[in-house]
Here is the input.
Amino acid sequence: MANTADISRGMIIKLDGSLYTVVEFGENKTARAAAKVWAKLKGVDNSRSIEKTWNSGDTIYPVRVERKAYQYLYKDDTGYNFMDNETFEQIALQEQLIDAPQFLKEAQEVSVLINTETEQPMSVELPDKITVLVTYSEPGVKGDTATRTLKPATVETGATVNVPLFVNEGELIRINTKTGEYVERVK
Here is the structure.
């Protein structure tokens, strides 16, 4: 068991029967009252985001999580299929467990978070930035570069990303999987 002094960003805790990851936390101290610890929590096994406040020193229940490297194989009617890079075991996971399923491409390496108490996969995280091929994009208008104007482009995974006007079909671009935004053109 741990107490509120052990809270850290990224920690997964059990609260009211559900699992939450700590997105942000802090402490409020006043002259007259005891210190309070607050945290913004994002649901791991549900889609809720909540804020929670504890008295300083209260008990919290962290969950031990293991991060394993898996490779994305394919999608079928059972879900998204991944293979463990060490044991070659395959698992099928539902779309809601994947943080950015629209950017998954075959043979891509991902991290699967596994709850060590139940040995069940909790979520799938893609790398922060990935390189993808632009499969369709309207040509940019010459001379229209004074402002940061963006146009939609379809990438090899089927997702649509807003890119600058100078990006053309057939080019490689790097995108941020957390925000879905264009980062840079890859040479």
Notes: The chain has a mean pLDDT of 89. The chain has three domains: 2-62, 65-125, 129-186. The longest strand covers residues 65-76.
